[in-house]
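Subject: for your reference before the review

Hello V.,

The reviewers asked for a structural picture of the protein, and I figured it would be easier to keep everything in one thread rather than splitting it across files. Below is the amino acid sequence we used in the manuscript, unchanged from the supplementary table.
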Amino acid sequence: MNTVYFDNAATSWPKPEETYVAMDHYSRAIGGSPGRSGHRLSIESGRVIMNTRETLSRLFGIDDPFQLVFTKNATEALNLAIGGFLSPGDHVITSSMEHNSVMRPLRLLESKGVELSVVRCSSQGELDLQELVSAVKKTTKAIFLTHASNVTGTIMPVKKVGEIAREHGLIFCVDAAQTAGALPIDISGMNSDLLAFTGHKSLFGPQGTGGLYIRKGLEERIQPLMAGGTGSRSEFESQPDFMPDKYESGTLNTVGLAGLGAGAEYLLRKGIDHIRAREIMLTQHFLDGLKSIGAIHIYGPGDASRKISVVSFNLDGMTPSEASFALDEQYGIMSRPGLHCAPAAHRTIGTFPGGTVRFSFGYFNTEEEISYALDALQQLSRQGQ
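And here is what came back from the structure prediction:
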């Protein structure tokens, strides 16, 4: 049986060979603890981290690599941005298409006195900019917005939202968990003050890696999530106040960051535009093929250029879990059913509480796999009738 992996929105797989080689090389040939010793292996370990910081900065258009803080994933980065910045009495705006990595920290702070406005999106997952503007108040402090939905794939107008944030003197945080490595990202072009990302999706790194870009000067207003050893200013018992050490307590996942750096280098060599073009082609091939299957319901934009390579759908006569299980057991196709950690998004598109089946394609998928999946869905649609 074929093994067809369509769950890249959860974790990309496979990775480029360079990712595996870099992690193996670090583990076998370096292995030292970065910033904790003066010997050559510790110094080389620190160089690995700096190289990854610089590579990601080139990818995102960040002028100063030290404004990029490493975390274990986008969730931690968003918790730092949200929990470290907002205070009781602040008002914050987000959209109804957010992942729980945004919604849950905001709801937690709402219970502690932060006021939250959720701008409802369309059934296609699209944001109404006028509704966003109407939600701004005198007490509004920030806007938190996904760059693209992990449910419908809908790409949000982050550049225009960034302009709105600038006009109203608001901090703008972009959740790029689904787009870092999949879409071109330019920090200054999108007027983003904060950018959270994860390494294990389209950046081709391993799990346990991610980060947060913090606009220079804004770190003075964001408290760290935790304090501890940083390898710097060890003579003081107070937390360092400079970047990135202020937010990087504890030994970093250096082997993971070695892999993340290699994945980012691979993206720079291939070119994000090339990656994007291929994923648009694969997604549109799938969307066009679904039109001939009458017993299937598709959610989100039908134009692949308006979305990332994520397609959510349901089959008549089958729950998402039943369909996803059958795809795996009968055809070897890996997908993700359910609510995708984004219940607000499913309420928005009308699929709560059952959710959808989600296919998410990656650079290493093929047209042949798409055609095979379309044949499988055609056969499953007959079983559900």
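For the response letter, the relevant points are probably these. The chain has a mean pLDDT of 96. The radius of gyration is 21 Å.

Happy to draft the paragraph if you're swamped.

O.
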